[in-house]
Amino acid sequence: MIITTTANIDGKEIIEYKGIVFGEVITGINILKDIGAGLRNFFGGRSEGYEQELLKARNEALDEMAERAKSMGADAVVGVKMDYEVLGADNGMLMVTCSGTAVRLG
After folding, report:
1. CB atoms < 10 A from the CB of 42, how many?
2. What is the pLDDT of residues 15-70, one digit of tens each?
3. CB-based contacts of 48: which residues, under 8 Å, 6+ apart?
4. Which of 30, 61, 91, 102 could form a disulfide linkage to 69, CB 3.0–4.6 angstroms apart?
5. Span 2-105: which CATH code?
6. Which residues are paired to 17 by β-bridges?
7. Distance between CA 87 and CA 73 in Å, rounded?
8. Largest separation between any pair of C-alpha atoms in the chain
9. C-alpha span between 3 and 62 (Å, rounded)
């Protein structure tokens, strides 16, 4: 499955538009990552725990979108956009969403 942010794929012809597809993931950030991030915020540096959680959520959202496109008979998803949001009363949840247009290639 080709997934791209561009409207077309070089060397490929889009022969059918199947529709818009989405992928959504909501994940909790655990207390140990919060403590580590708090220390890095105070002393400086990157939060590897949060970065890994974000990478995992992003990949899961893309995989979910690809599966939905595949179930529609698509070969690719074009025009992909991603969005990130922090949710929950204590901002302890991370939501990653992606959307794009499922297409069939010739």
Report:
1. 8
2. 999 999 999 999 876 544 454 445 445 455 555 667 788 899 999 999 999 999 99
3. 36
4. 102
5. 3.30.110.70
6. 103
7. 33
8. 54
9. 8
Q: What is the full DSSP assignment across 35-97?
A: HHHHHHHHH----HHHHHHHHHHHHHHHHHHHHHHHHTT-SEEEEEEEEEEEESTTS-EEEEE
Query: Which amino acid would we find at residue 5?
Result: T
**Which helix (DSSP H) or strand (DSSP E) does residue 31 occupy?**
helix 31-43
- pTM of the predicted protein model: 0.79
Could you give the CA distance from residue 23 to residue 101 in angstroms, rounded to a whole number?
Answer: 12
Q: Is 2 left (phi over 0), alpha (psi -120 to 50) or beta?
A: beta
Question: Is 84 within 8 Å of 94 (Cβ atoms)?
Answer: yes
